[in-house]
Amino acid sequence: MQSANTFLRKIASSVLPFAAQHGMRKDLFPLSRALSLSLCLKQDNSCSPSEKLDLDAWKKVMKAGLQEEVSETVSDSEEFSSLAQAREILAMWRLAGRSVPENITDEQLKAFTECPSKSAKRKYLKFLYLKELRKKKDKIKLDEKRQRRLESQKEAPTADETRRDSFMYVQASAMDRAYNWRVAQAMVFGQPLVFDMSYEEEMSPRELTNAVTQLVYGEGCNRRAADPFHIHLCNLREGSLYHRELLKHYREAWGKLLVTATERCYTEVFPKHQLIYLTADSPRVMKTFDHNKIYIVGSMVDKSIKTGVSLARAKRLGLETAALPLEKYLLWNSGAKNLTLDQMMQILLTLKDTGDWKKALEFVPKRKYSSFISKPVHELQKTLNLINTLKLGKRQEEVRKQHAKNYSKKLIQK
Amino acid sequence: SVQPPEKPLQAEEWNRLKKSFESPAVFEEVMFNSMVRYNSPVDVAKSLLTHVAKSNGDIAYNLLVKYLALCVQQGQTSEIRDVYNIMKMRFKILESGAYNLLIRGLSNSDQWRMALTLLEEVKKIMIPSRTNYESCIKAATRHQEMKLAFELYHEMLAKDLVPTLDVLQTFFDSCRGMKDAELQKELFGMLLYLRENQIYPHKTFMRSIKLWFESIPGGNWRGHLTNIKDSGQCPVCNHQLEDSDLTEEEYDNLRERIIRDVIHGTDMFRKTTPEEFEAFQTFVENRLPFDIVIDGLNVSHIKPRKMQCENLFDAVSCLAKENGRLLVLGRKHMLSNSSNWKREIMKQMQSKADFFFAENISEDDAFLLYATLQSGKHCRFVTRDFLRDHKACLSDSPTRHLFRKWQRGHQIVFLPSVEGKQINFLPALRYDCVVQTTGDTWHIPYKDIFEEKYSYQVPRKWLCIQKK
């Protein structure tokens, strides 16, 4: 929080243009008036600093400022729509120092009023607030960078010229062409990798947007890989929320994207016996990466821990399932075993290239595990069991002794 | 944090303090926070406000709220009113934090009626919190405005707010000794509210209830604290408590909902498969009714140092002695003759009870519930599982309460005894642990401590109230 002064300045600069833009009346924002007021007050008081302390002077200041304005505010008695009212509440929350975004669109405001509970509202606002904060920081960084670049260009405009001659340049577009060539090849000869897009009903709108972001990341990783997969987006219905979100991300590029998007199910596209559904709930653990199989990844972000949803899909279709051998290679620390789509993509790409589990599982977030397991698991388990039995055995002995002691005490007391 | 000064300061002194503070931008805020924490005199806070007002020409909203918090903390009613007036003039609406403070502060003063008008104001922009109502109700009861208090109480119930036990207790405390049939009806209604929502009062609340009953003029009520016997008989008045059986209608309702919400759920494949469930259904239909349904895997873990099939064997033979038909639910891997599951012992057991083995990745709990409910009201089930995840699958709270009631009456929990082979079974409660009445008697279970953590624990202590 800033002191009131800087705070005022900020409000005045951020809210006012917004209000003007949305055709709101100026007197909705009483703070804007205080600004002009503060100037004259400062002048008034500066001359008499050593008088006796009047504790209620602040009330006079606050009220004095208001009397001038009464004529303005009284006229203001229109009915407000619920959205305008919500906007006012948000403004007050922001003044109270809660995590509320400075600017909010009508669409977001509507989503806010439609939140089912108070805590849902609070969470949504915090989400918007953090997003806004991040954007602002990014913008500042970008500006700084631009500034620096301009300065360095000013300083050494000639050095650049000489360098251009002595190095061979690979342009970004050339890289893109090379990548696209490889992916195009993968579309003909590559191993398919299926993303099952049938989870729209299981997800909240936010989970869905997260899923699409992850998918876009994953596709990017695949494109840059030495030996990319042929990505299939199965069960992707035209006009579905998923489809629309993807379009939002890729825009024109969607049509030129080197992936196969289809409304059909993977079972219709591929022979059933080749399919393996990857799901953390699977009882079967994947041992090696099979180049002749077609792996399916459920493109679902599951924040509310719905266990067994993708396993149910596989069971229904009678498909083989598998889970990554996370337990076998990693000393798991915390967090769910389900990984994001881009992490899955990275892991599968590495496996495909090298077949090295250790290398592949580097892509599991570090916070989720404490270390790689060097010894085979069953040996570790054995030592763990040994320690446990020793511990337990000892404790049981202690309990028995304690019990016997108490019992004999009782006998003596009798 | 900083220690607030003890006496009001002059402007220069505040300025000096602010400059010495490590981050001057938040100085006022931090200072007000610590004033609230140390409960500084309001004059100190006022001097800071004056300083801020004079140097900025304005006081930010959050500082006003913090000052308000300090005034509320110290019960400075006139200051609270002043701050409210200033805020009201300054801002078109206030936010919930300020309203909460205002309502709390004013409801404790002689100007409590203003808290009521504030409550009306809050209602215009949002749903008031239950503590808002609590403050107003307490203020009304304190001033003997019982009618108003009950109106507010019903209003909050209508808004789906759950009243705190504190509010309910206030009603019982303030109605003590009153001879008003309407009031009595209201309070009986509150006891029934406890019954419907399976809420148990804590010890001090229970005392308030007891004292109220005993204070009803001409009521001749007497209360005693007691423990109910396992048979469900009250040792004080010999009254037999309600049994935990559900009515026909409730039972059918629960069974349907279990099948719909727990077994089918959003996707039947998550817990089982349609073929498997159908196979299980025909299996159960052909052998109905069972007396006890056992969760085999759960029982087999009772003593960790024993072979799993031995544990199960002990439990089955123990239950087989006294009861008729047993059904044991398990998974297919139990048949695979491993170190924990010996084939001979499994064979032996299968002569004593019916067995159903589900797929290894299916959930046997759903089968347990289905088989028990299909067998009829007399059938009970054995598991140490609290079945909380299944309760959570049920979509509305009345059904969940029904489930809990049924669970209390039909679940047998076993405990491993410290020594010896014996397994002890904690039988299902025969009586229903809930507030209950016959008109002439009231039986109210209560918690010993204020917060008992687990919802599956039912109190053992009761308040028995009877009419002489």
From TrEMBL, chain B:
<dbReference type="GO" id="GO:0097745">
    <property type="term" value="P:mitochondrial tRNA 5'-end processing"/>
</dbReference>
<keyword id="KW-0460">Magnesium</keyword>
<keyword id="KW-0809">Transit peptide</keyword>
<protein>
    <recommendedName>
        <fullName>Mitochondrial ribonuclease P catalytic subunit</fullName>
        <ecNumber>3.1.26.5</ecNumber>
    </recommendedName>
</protein>
<dbReference type="GO" id="GO:0046872">
    <property type="term" value="F:metal ion binding"/>
</dbReference>
<dbReference type="InterPro" id="IPR002885">
    <property type="entry name" value="PPR_rpt"/>
</dbReference>
<dbReference type="InterPro" id="IPR011990">
    <property type="entry name" value="TPR-like_helical_dom_sf"/>
</dbReference>
<feature type="domain" description="PRORP">
    <location>
        <begin position="228"/>
        <end position="464"/>
    </location>
</feature>
<keyword id="KW-0496">Mitochondrion</keyword>
<dbReference type="InterPro" id="IPR033495">
    <property type="entry name" value="MRPP3_PIN_dom"/>
</dbReference>
<dbReference type="GO" id="GO:0004526">
    <property type="term" value="F:ribonuclease P activity"/>
</dbReference>
<keyword id="KW-0378">Hydrolase</keyword>
<keyword id="KW-0862">Zinc</keyword>
<keyword id="KW-0479">Metal-binding</keyword>
<dbReference type="GO" id="GO:0030678">
    <property type="term" value="C:mitochondrial ribonuclease P complex"/>
</dbReference>
<keyword id="KW-0540">Nuclease</keyword>
<dbReference type="InterPro" id="IPR031595">
    <property type="entry name" value="PRORP_C"/>
</dbReference>
<keyword id="KW-0819">tRNA processing</keyword>
<dbReference type="Pfam" id="PF16953">
    <property type="entry name" value="PRORP"/>
</dbReference>
<comment type="similarity">
    <text>Belongs to the PPR family. P subfamily.</text>
</comment>
<dbReference type="GO" id="GO:0001682">
    <property type="term" value="P:tRNA 5'-leader removal"/>
</dbReference>
<dbReference type="Pfam" id="PF01535">
    <property type="entry name" value="PPR"/>
</dbReference>
